[in-house]
Amino acid sequence: MDGAVPPKLLTVLSHAADIVRSHDFIHVFSHYDADGISAASIVAKTLARAGKEFSVRLFTTLDDEAASVIRGSGAECVVVTDLGASYVKEFDAMPFDVVVFDHHTVGDEAQRICYANPHLHGIDGMTSGCGATMAFLFAIAMDESNWDLVQVAMAGIAGDRQHINGLLGLNSYLLSEGKKRSLVKVSEGSLIPCGRLKDSLFISTDPYVRGVSGNEDGVRKILSEAGVSGDKDFSELSPEEAQRLSSSIALRLAAQNVSLQAMFETARTRYHLPDWKMDAETFATLLNGCGRTGLEGLGVCAAMGDAECLEGARRMEAVYSRQVLEAVVALDGAGTVELENIQWFDSSASGFTGVVCGVAMQFIGNPGKPVIGVNRSGDSAKVSSRGTWALLDRGVDLSAALKRACEAVGGNGGGHKIASGGSFPSARTEEFLHVLDKIIGEQVSAK
Known about the structure:
Elements (H helix, E strand, L loop, with lengths): L6 H15 L3 E7 L2 H16 L3 E7 L4 H8 L5 E5 L6 H5 L4 E5 L12 E3 L14 H12 L7 H10 L9 H12 L4 E3 L9 H7 L12 H11 L12 H17 L4 H7 L3 E4 L4 E2 H13 L3 H8 L3 H28 L2 E2 L4 E4 L6 H12 L6 E5 L4 E7 L2 H5 L4 H11 L3 E4 L3 E7 L3 H18 L1
Parallel strand pairs: 1-2, 1-3, 3-4, 4-5, 10-11
Antiparallel strand pairs: 6-7, 7-8, 9-10, 11-12, 12-14, 13-14
């Protein structure tokens, strides 16, 4: 890693490895999305190979309740992945060894715990190193023989969409070395989703093509227009067939006011994982399906290489993708609710807040305003937000905005400038939206 990873970060990773080696049992806590599951499974596999005993628990968010669970775990050593930036003070006060591998916007500085975050070393954790990236760097600090786990890290990178505009920073190091070791293969992207066309076009939400996604007649029509058989797999298309179908998709996306930038991001480079016989995005979707449907343990075991769990994750992904599609189609029909500076929707019925939020920002909503999704099905509302690079250029910072708005109504939040989340009392949703709308307006006005 010398030369590719900042020396001070190498020191932190080495310290983390020393701490873990000094314990026989380690509690692992992580986030429940694809990045969090990837990170947790990388750490778990590393611990298993090192002969350590461990437990893994995933959270939908790191809030006071989750922190209490960690505090009361009875642990001598805790490893936290893809979470922690907003709870550094609390971790510092816990009376046992705590190692944190996170990539979200830094809040407080660590005084006692071992804290690895790319932001602390001049690297953007939004684009250039996710939770799985940090967990993987720890894995090879433990033992260089863990390089095969780079394939799992690629799923985390794809899950956090850090591959959209090409791999940067620490992620580019993982790709470079992964290619040298024949663990990652790269191919050009396309607007056409992978898989058998009549199935992949129907279930697709990335891209979400109005009148095609979730519409069997629409799928038949676009395939007929392009002169392509729906029984063909994307990989079986001739260059001419791929060009015709891709053009038909692009025309429909343009008609629904999808930006050219969003189309370029959709037609992104794909990263294939030979040992897993799938690409990184497919792997990420499998893990997301497990996490979002309450089967986080299945996802962790699948990413650790258990064949039976991997097959179970495939079955769960089919159910998950169908549910997400239904939620997206419903939102497309209802539309978002526009305030002066933001647009929002209630995700309480589906529960798929973050993923639907992302689809809405790219393919459904007003591209000039951040999309906010709120699930207020319980006493504590869960909020997710998504922006675009163009909105960031106008001054929008969703990490700072969510942190301020959630705290203003008795909750907490944070994340990245372009994608952030949080929680707050459900009863204060309208107040939260008013505060957030005002904050985003201030950010844009100050630019």
